[in-house]
Structure formats: C-alpha cells, structure tokens
Amino acid sequence: MAAETDKGFGSLEKAIRILCLFDAETRERSAQEISNSLNIPLSTTYNYLKVFLRNDILSKDENSGKFRLGWKVFKLGVLAAANVSLLEIAAPYLLSIARRTQETVVLALIDGLDLLCVDTIESIRPVKLTMKRGARLPMHAGAPGKVLLAYNERSFLDEVIQSRGLPKVNRNTITDAKALGRELEVIREQGYSQSDSEVDSGAAALAVPILDYTGRAVASVSLIGSLEAILGRHRAGLVEILKEASEGISEKLGWVRPASLIKQGPESIGK
C-alpha cells in the first residue's frame, strides 16, 4: 500500500512539474519540449496532457499543436488572488526597503477618489518625515498618488479632476490638468514618480506602482524624506530598490511580466 501511495505522489509531482513549465517567457510548449525538459518518456507525457486537456487545465492550439494553460487555471488564479492580503504580502518587502534605505516607507492605495496610507515604516533617522496610517491625500499631490493616476484608466483621472479639482496643497503641487497629463506621461515612461514640496515644504518622495493580475495599479510603494536624501545622488539606487520590491509584490498578486520584458529586470514593471 505504501509503495502504491508513493507512486501516486510521484505522478502528482510530475503533473505539477509539467504545469510549472509554463511561465511568462514560455506560454506554449509542445509535448516533445515537455518530455525533454522533464526527462520523461513522450508516451507518458501524452498521458498527462490528455488528462489536462480533458479537465481544461491545459488547452491545445490546433495550428501549432502546442499546449498552453487553460481557463481552469485562470479561474483558480482569480480565486487565489481574492484570498491574498496586500498588507500581508507587502509587509516583508516594506521592511526590507526600510532596512536598506533607512528612509520612511509608505504603502498607499486608492480609496474612492483619494489616496489612503495603509501601512508605513518610519525612518530610524533622528530627523525624519512620516506619513501616518489612515492619512488621506489628494491623488494629484505627491509621488504616491501621481503614480497611481499614471497607471490607471484615463477615466479615473477625469473623474478625480471633475469631482475634486486640482487644489494647491503646497508650492509645487500641479494644479493644471494639461501639466498633470504631461507629468503622468513621464511617469509611465520612466516607471516611477517623484515629488518635491508638493505636500510639505522640503519633503521629497519616490513612488512605484504595484500591479495586480490584470496589470492595473492597485497600490503604490514609496520613500519619503528630505530632498537631499530622496532626490539627491542616491535617487537611482532608491528607485531600483523600490522597483525590485514592487515587482515582488506584484508577482505575488498575480501580475505576470510581459515576455518581451523578461530579461530587462525590475525596471520593466509598469511599462
């Protein structure tokens, strides 16, 4: 009985390994490719593939003869994503950012038409800038909100402008719709946003988007601090740290990096 059980687990493991061969870089595989990758007989491979096809776990392109993940996998992914907590996933990444940068880290998301801070880790520096949990800001004021505007539908931006306007919060707040539109284009091009004295005088911020399985920005992760600390000579390194973290969080939310960007590294997120 034990031997039969072990054999059953071995078959299950092979089935899982077949499914794990499909990723953003290789969305389709032939039976021969699967057989070669896992070093299992081609006849055995076809037996697994027949079961997957019968249960809609895989589908087959009739022209190429190759196999791809089926709609049942998508359904399971959606269900898994619904049970995932953004705060739980993001927590270790926020801690890592804080340890590496020693600056204040903020996780924020869209709440209605406003930006809501849902988690923060304060800098250990004697003089620091903070943003409290539960704090709300206009979407257009500061890097955390602007990056969310940049990576959401244009209709959302229009609704924010129509309902909230673009009030001046501090001396560098963008209050012109056309100027804001140009700023958002730059943000999408470079993959991050920055701000200087848009909310508080002397306060600077860098922010990147966190994407879900649809590719939509659901939150932003940002660093806030003094102008010199955030936008000075270490800015490029801080941006890369943020992008690495946002990519990790996004992937755990189901985001899949486009295959054309697989080899470009963390700078590809959001592009």
UniProtKB/TrEMBL annotation:
<dbReference type="Pfam" id="PF01614">
    <property type="entry name" value="IclR_C"/>
</dbReference>
<dbReference type="GO" id="GO:0045892">
    <property type="term" value="P:negative regulation of DNA-templated transcription"/>
</dbReference>
<dbReference type="GO" id="GO:0003700">
    <property type="term" value="F:DNA-binding transcription factor activity"/>
</dbReference>
<protein>
    <submittedName>
        <fullName>Transcriptional regulator, IclR family</fullName>
    </submittedName>
</protein>
<dbReference type="InterPro" id="IPR036388">
    <property type="entry name" value="WH-like_DNA-bd_sf"/>
</dbReference>
<dbReference type="InterPro" id="IPR005471">
    <property type="entry name" value="Tscrpt_reg_IclR_N"/>
</dbReference>
<dbReference type="InterPro" id="IPR036390">
    <property type="entry name" value="WH_DNA-bd_sf"/>
</dbReference>
<dbReference type="Pfam" id="PF09339">
    <property type="entry name" value="HTH_IclR"/>
</dbReference>
<dbReference type="InterPro" id="IPR014757">
    <property type="entry name" value="Tscrpt_reg_IclR_C"/>
</dbReference>
<keyword id="KW-0805">Transcription regulation</keyword>
<feature type="domain" description="HTH iclR-type">
    <location>
        <begin position="9"/>
        <end position="71"/>
    </location>
</feature>
<dbReference type="GO" id="GO:0003677">
    <property type="term" value="F:DNA binding"/>
</dbReference>
<dbReference type="InterPro" id="IPR029016">
    <property type="entry name" value="GAF-like_dom_sf"/>
</dbReference>
<keyword id="KW-0238">DNA-binding</keyword>
<keyword id="KW-0804">Transcription</keyword>
<dbReference type="InterPro" id="IPR050707">
    <property type="entry name" value="HTH_MetabolicPath_Reg"/>
</dbReference>
<feature type="domain" description="IclR-ED">
    <location>
        <begin position="72"/>
        <end position="255"/>
    </location>
</feature>
